[in-house]
Write a structure and sequence with these properties.
Helix content is 38%, strand content 24%. With 106 residues, it is an alpha+beta fold. The radius of gyration is 15 Å and the shape is globular.
């Protein structure tokens, strides 16, 4: 399993509408995402405090290759939404969890 981090950068005029815009984006791609075999859990959305035009979305996924397969199909679905609301196209990064010990904590 991997973790996916998406970075969304909204145009300044939409800063106050981030929750509604993220819901609209999720309505566009969510059903297809949740039905995909690589789906491993729901996403968490984070709005950057110092730069409220930036939103990070973090979620688990089965593999990078299956996620890349999914996102290719999302390009036409999200094109109009991104052109209207976003300063740049979304960025997608892939994370691997780093295991570590927590001494003294069971």
């Amino acid at each position: 399993m991997i973790h996916v981090v998406e970075t969304w950068r909204f145009k300044e005029e939409f800063t106050g509408q981030v929750p509604e815009l993220m819901q609209a984006m999720d309505d566009l791609v969510g059903p297809r995402t949740h039905a995909h075999s690589g789906f491993s859990g729901h996403a968490t959305f984070f709005q950057h405090q110092a730069d409220p035009t930036t939103v990070w979305i973090l979620y688990p996924w089965q593999s990078r290759s299956s996620h890349e397969e999914l996102t290719v199909g999302e390009i036409p679905i999200l094109a109009e939404f991104q052109a209207r609301h976003c300063a740049t196209p979304r960025e997608i990064g892939y994370l691997s969890e780093v295991t570590h010990e927590h001494p003294g904590h069971e």
